[in-house]
Amino acid sequence: MKNGEVNLGTSIMAVAFADGVVIGADSRTTTGAYIANRVTDKLTKVHDRIYCCRSGSAADTQAVADIVHYYLQLYSVQENEMPSVRTASALFQELCYQNKDMLTAGIIVAGWDEKNGPAVYNVPLGGSLHKQPFAIGGSGSTYIYGYCDANFKENMTRDECVGFVKNSLSLAMSRDGSSGGVIRLAVITKEGVERLFVPGDKLPVHWEG
Predict the structure, then answer these.
(1) How far is CA 45 from the centre of its chain?
(2) With contact defined as beta carbons under 8 Å apart, do 154 and 164 qualify?
């Protein structure tokens, strides 16, 4: 990080289920030890049913998301069809890989499209691209790899996925000093996008005996 750069020291997550995806993030943005924003929205819309979760430098990830948003709008007009989640994630990957020396950006791309249905892609720091049943990212993710691996199940329902994301993020937020605030969630399906919100005083504390 450059001196004074605003950092999304973050916990972000996405999980696919049969009819769509659930994405979620905490809301803390830090500048060193100072919390610059405690209610940030890290879930960024890049097309009607495709969102990204941003971690790393706030400036870098906002710029990359803006560029992808522009290209996807262009694509939908030129091709007269909705872009796929794969197309969106390939754009993120290309931008992050070609500029990897200048960017600090870890991005999870998730959504639903007509061709392939629900999909979750992870674009970590080096600019590689990984299709996964679920993805976690940001500084808080290091604390919850074990929890997520132990609690993830194939063929979860929508409500199970929402619970899984809520519980995982609240655990990460309790452990990681750079994560906190509220949990913002979005459920993306064929029908559209449903935004959910968990205030800071209503976070799950499932790990307390």
Answers:
(1) 11
(2) no
What is d(CA 33, CA 35) in angstroms, rounded to the nearest whole number?
Answer: 7
Whether residue 46 contacts residue 69, with contact meaning beta carbons closer than 8 Å, is answered with yes
Q: What are phi and psi of 65, to 5 degrees?
A: -65, -40
Residue with tokens 């990212």: 137
Catalytic hit among 10, 44, 104, 189:
10
Encoding tokens for residue 115?
Answer: 């061709």
Q: Are residues 168 and 148 in contact, defined by beta-carbon separation less than 8 angstroms?
A: yes
**E strand map for 114-203:** 117-123, 130-131, 134-137, 183-189, 192-198
Q: What is the mean pLDDT of each run of 10 residues along the chain (209 residues)?
A: 74 98 96 91 98 96 98 98 98 98 96 98 97 97 97 97 98 96 98 98 89
**pLDDT, position 7:** 79
At 205 the three-state DSSP class reads coil
Residue 10 annotated in active site: yes
Three-state SS for 105?
strand
Look up tokens 């890989």; give the residue: 97
